[in-house]
Amino acid sequence: MAKKLILVRHAKSDHSVSGQKDFDRELNAEGHRIAPRMGNRFAKKNIPFDAFVSSPAQRAKSTAEYFAEQLKYDFDKIIYNENIYEASVRVLLHEISEFDDSFQTVIMFGHNPGFSYLAESLTKAEIGDMPTCAIIEMDFDIKTWKEIAQTKGKLLDFDYPDKQEIKD
Description:
Layout: E1 3-9, H1 29-43, E2 51-54, H2 58-71, E3 79-80, H3 89-97, E4 105-110, H4 114-123, E5 135-140, E6 154-159, H5 163-167
Parallel strand pairs: 1-4, 2-3, 2-4
Antiparallel strand pairs: 1-5, 5-6
């Protein structure tokens, strides 16, 4: 049985608070507007999933919660993993390889540049810089998550907020 990994980069964050730790940055007004819209757009695809795994950084956590709300997923079931925050591809691959094999599809919320590099590494597709609140869907012909680093995945979709949505 195949595994599916869906990466969601956090929505736009607020840089206006002087001296605030990067980890604690909230979403800005645009992030609060776009995250639920992208969550709703993703929900309309009706893709079954088993788990949410998120960086605990505030902006990733808020984005995951907006998606959970749109997908009717219990906030208490979101798995927060500190190792995702500012992670390299190597660290991200390790964390993914530790996913419970009963999960067929995992939605993971985190940060760039790690997520962009990870998607390119896993699919060999030219992703470039994932925009904020972008969603990348990948499919892998593997039985266990431990096999993730030894295979090439298939890029199924790369969705991101377009200019019109951002202005709404």
